Predict the structure.
Amino acid sequence: MDSKEVENCTIFLTVAGSKAYGTDSPESDTDIRGVCILKDKSYYIGMGLHKFEQKDKGWEDPEDDKVIYDIRKAFSLMADGNPNMIDLLFTDERHWLKETWEWENVLEHREAFLSKKMRFTYGGYAYAQLKRIQRHRGYLMNPPKKKPERSDFGLPERKLISSDQAGAFQWLIAKMMEDSVQYMNLSDEAKESLQQINYIGLVQSNVPDECWGEIQKLTGATDQWIEAIMREKRYNHALQDWNAYQNWKRTRNPKRQKIENKFGYDTKHAMHLVRLMRMGMEILEKGVVQVYRHDREELKEIRNGAWSYEKVVEYAKQCDENLEKLYKISKLPKQPNRNFLDGLCQALIKGYVFK
């Protein structure tokens, strides 16, 4: 898709990222995000080959960190509670680069995108930041000593279990776990939380060794099968960790390296973690999204190392508990009204393209 064509059809463009939050530094890049409605009707009619979701490269200035989304992709991500996309609905006017009456129409209904899903999206994004912090700190404090070998785990050079066999077994366990949720004596909120889990991913990465005895009872697998799959999993996890560690060393950002070496963890990730947790709590409690942060100076201090690693981990735990409490009492709907949002999206496309 030609960059000029996309820019000419853009209905909203704004500065995003650290400059939108007010947490930028002199070295910060300028992130630009936008939404467009393409003039070519073929992108919106029928099941043709024309398809467009977003443009994130090929701009006249190759240094531009700019992403412009098709309105349908933007609405979908916003309705799902994607934090980066929710930001676009609530950036401060001082950061707007282009705004049209179509976008004004969207802004009139921006609260319709908010829902209790923010407990999982903002909390999930924050948790991802915490996992990066913990993983990279582990690399710093206790890096892997050598590439794992199959013999280290009592395995022969040839796999005892094929990838297809292991995948089928993992799928079976995941399906049993997922199906069992509806029969549990749990609150609706707890069941909804459990339904958000990626069970196949959970089985592939996070089944504790002590659980395999129960899995054996449920599946009827032999002792030899369970022992083999456990050994293969331990080896695969060790190999994945080794490869991730090597990739981290190879692609490590020099600025991040200095930060991690100085403070023992990535303080920039910590700043994002705190911001995401706080924004999630604000949305659930007050129904507001404050992109340009009132606590921006404190956030910058966190990025500059004001908090210890231990404080960050404890704060994340406290915030997650608060998010769960706020989720239960929040006045927001559990889900946005997708029929309404779909109608709004269609009306904007019809008015822009087919008028």
In short: Residues 116-333 form one domain.
